[in-house]
Amino acid sequence: MAFKKSDVPGEDIRLAMEMTAKRRKLIDETPATPLVYEYGVNRLAKALHPGFVKAVIADKTPSSADCVKISLKPAKGEEFPYFRAGQFVTLSCKAGDSFLSRPYSIISSPKEALAGKLEIMVQRKGIFSTFITDEAPVGTELWMGEPSGDFHHDSIRDRKHILAIAGGSGVTPFLSMMKAIREGSEDFRLTLIYGARTRAHIPFDPEGFKSEGVDTVIVLSDEEADGYRHGFITADLLKECIDDDTSVFMCGPDAMYRFVRGELQKLGFDQTLIRSERNSVGDREVDEIRVFKLIVHIRDAVYELDAPNNETLITALERAGIPAVVRCRNGSCGFCHSRVVSGEYFVDAVNDFRRSADKKFGYIHPCSTYAESDMEIDIPIMDL
Ligand code: FES
Fold first, then answer.
1. What is the pLDDT of residues 268-309, one digit of tens each?
2. Which atom from ligand 1 is nearest to the alpha carbon of 368?
């Protein structure tokens, strides 16, 4: 209610004295029912950040000697959120006594996901991937975290032509980008160089992805065939594919990153224009495997479990069937941010993305941390 200043002497005081009664009357007359409308910005935030969504395995198709394409559909009453081509989702489910999670790049285009179809490509490797490729039947329900990651084209940061270099299942984010270019959701050009051992190890149909603005070059290391390059992704091949408006995106094994970076260096390519998708932190090599006691607090609940020194803490939690908050599994996103109550631990510098305050006050990312003694930690609750 606006208070209007009066020019009549003393009138201001009278109006001010009446104001309380007027406000009280308005409050009393207002019904105590909650507001029924939702702000548009809240609807948008919910659509973009739905938290966990239940997804169902709708179909599985072998796509190469060691990869399976898995189609997901939203469970009843759920919707898939929008994402940027190149992002990943984290899938989680109970498998035996364990509660497992793993991030997978989306191979669908953003429009396909909005239409209720979301596909991932899974390489038969590791406990969870083998579980969903070989054991989980069609109809299995999984928890799906919201799309995440910054491995997508950014018109401010990246050049207009992306030279995408991939090996193994690392081609997945680029399949989504190629579809997004074709359907008009993304506006850049992409040349894909894909390295595989033989034609049987190529998990996609290169011809099926060709469109305006998209080109593919397949390099086979163990086979010679018409229409395919033979050998490795060398400086000579890279030079053919680079123009004066190129950024390089890489997704694949760490050994490929090191090799290709070396080849790009030979060409004098600007290193600031190279981006590589980070891989999950796995087991580490140790002289002797030692198993420590790990006490875990999740709000009021307390668990005690074994934590071998060669596995990350998140792996130990999953093995024990404790649903732990996890997203990137490479130490970079901070979603598993947890407090160390006591104990010694190790974080490899290349996977240590903690803020300096976190390091100082004993916070860790369990997905990239290994126990070095008995430990006690306090982890966030997984809000399913
Ligand atoms: S899950 Fe991303 S930092 Fe641990």
1. 999 999 999 999 999 999 999 999 999 999 999 999 999 999
2. 4
